[in-house]
């Protein structure tokens, strides 16, 4: 039995999608599919059956899923314990360079900065904005320690570890007169919208693609690259804003927004940390990324 394949099983079970599982693990889709083929051979079961959207687990996969996930989590805990034994974070003196999207910068980095100040007080954190064009060169040149983002594009020699999963919700200002206790699909497409487009800009995105499948459109009036700024803008207007759930909850608390479940299905996504393969066995880097993951896991 090849236990190294278990993380592939866990991520496919979690996301019900081989491509998404591959992205979380830093694998190509062919590599993830090959790993699944080997798992099927080892267990003598199909494990996952292709469906109209992704895959669905067999009864056997559903039965063994919890045990395999416990095994994987236990191995992660052992790895973290070993790294902490090998490195005293309070004695580490290092510059730690983090590249982050706007969302991770407002949602995660305040937690990371606070946690590092207590657990690794001599580590200086340098935060850089995400730039899709230059990221590959920065990783190869060693100018980046950690990338904190949802990456759509494949990168060579990049290792990934999932931090957390988010689905999407909708927010509007408190006391919005046109929205009741429950947001309906009719209200959603009728009202004006604002969208967040951190990189490409424009007035359409995932939501519009999903609505188009239903033969629907919405009226997007404002496009902005920043999540918290969008929440502030919405607080003073009648626009609706569709956001990842954790960002929406933060915006609701800061600006008094109402949060509604979407009146249609929209796939969520995972935010992961990514690092170049040459840093994978660096003891200090192992300890610091384990600390980062522990901070996020206990705070979100």
- Given this structure, which CATH class of the largest domain is correct? Alpha Beta
Helix proportion: 40-55%
By CATH, the topology of the largest domain is: D-Maltodextrin-Binding Protein, domain 2
Strand order of the largest sheet: 4-3-5-12-6
Q: How many domain units?
A: 3
Shape: globular
- Could you tell me the radius of gyration in angstroms? 21 Å
What are the SSEs and their pairings?
Elements: H1 6-15, H2 18-25, H3 29-43, E1 48-50, E2 55-57, H4 59-86, E3 94-100, H5 102-107, H6 109-119, E4 123-129, H7 135-141, E5 146-149, E6 158-166, E7 168-173, H8 185-190, E8 192-196, H9 206-213, E9 219-224, H10 227-235, E10 240-244, H11 245-255, E11 257-261, E12 269-276, H12 283-299
Parallel strand pairs: 3-4, 3-5, 8-9, 8-10
Antiparallel strand pairs: 1-2, 5-12, 6-12, 7-10, 7-11
Helix pairs in contact: 1-2, 1-4, 2-3, 4-12, 6-12, 10-11
Question: Overview of this structure, please?
Answer:
- With 300 residues, the chain is of the alpha/beta class.
- The protein folds into 3 domains: 82 residues, Winged helix-like DNA-binding domain superfamily/Winged helix DNA-binding domain (Arc Repressor Mutant, subunit A), CATH 1.10.10.10; 109 residues, 3-Layer(aba) Sandwich (D-Maltodextrin-Binding Protein, domain 2), CATH 3.40.190.10; 94 residues, 3-Layer(aba) Sandwich (D-Maltodextrin-Binding Protein, domain 2).
- It has 12 helices and 12 strands.
- The protein has a 5-stranded mixed sheet with strand order 4-3-5-12-6, sandwiched between helices. Strands 9-8-10-7-11 form a 5-stranded mixed sheet. Strands 1-2 form a two-stranded antiparallel sheet.
- The chain is globular, with a radius of gyration of 21 Å.
- It starts with 5 loop residues before the first helix and ends with a helix.
- The model has no long low-confidence stretch (mean pLDDT 91).
């Amino acid at each position: 039995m090849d236990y190294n394949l278990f993380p592939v099983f866990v991520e496919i079970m979690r996301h019900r999608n081989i491509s998404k599982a591959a992205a979380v693990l830093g694998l190509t889709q062919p590599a993830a599919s090959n790993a699944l083929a080997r798992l099927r051979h080892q267990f003598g079961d199909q494990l996952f059956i292709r469906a109209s959207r992704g895959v669905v687990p067999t009864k056997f996969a559903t039965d063994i899923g919890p045990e395999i996930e416990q095994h994987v989590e236990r191995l992660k805990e052992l790895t973290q314990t070993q790294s902490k034994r090998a490195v005293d974070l309070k004695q580490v003196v290092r510059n730690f360079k983090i590249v982050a999207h706007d969302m991770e910068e407002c949602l995660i980095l305040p937690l990371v900065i606070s946690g590092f100040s207590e657990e690794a007080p001599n580590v200086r954190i340098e935060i850089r904005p995400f730039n899709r064009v230059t990221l590959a060169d920065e990783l190869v040149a060693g100018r980046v320690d950690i990338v904190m983002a949802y990456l759509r594009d494949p990168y060579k020699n990049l290792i990934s570890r999932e931090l957390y999963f988010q689905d999407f919700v909708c927010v509007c200002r408190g006391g919005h007169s046109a929205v009741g206790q429950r947001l309906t699909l009719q209200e959603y497409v009728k009202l004006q919208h604002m969208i967040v487009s951190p990189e490409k800009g424009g007035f359409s995105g995932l939501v519009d693609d999903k609505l188009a499948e239903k033969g629907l459109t919405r009226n997007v009036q404002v496009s902005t690259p920043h999540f918290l700024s969008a929440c502030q803008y919405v607080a003073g207007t009648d626009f609706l804003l569709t956001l990842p759930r954790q960002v929406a909850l933060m915006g609701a608390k800061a600006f008094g927004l109402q949060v509604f479940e979407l009146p249609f299905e929209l796939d969520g996504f995972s935010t992961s940390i990514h690092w170049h393969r040459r840093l994978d066995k660096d003891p200090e880097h192992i300890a610091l990324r384990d600390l980062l993951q522990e901070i996020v896991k206990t705070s979100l």
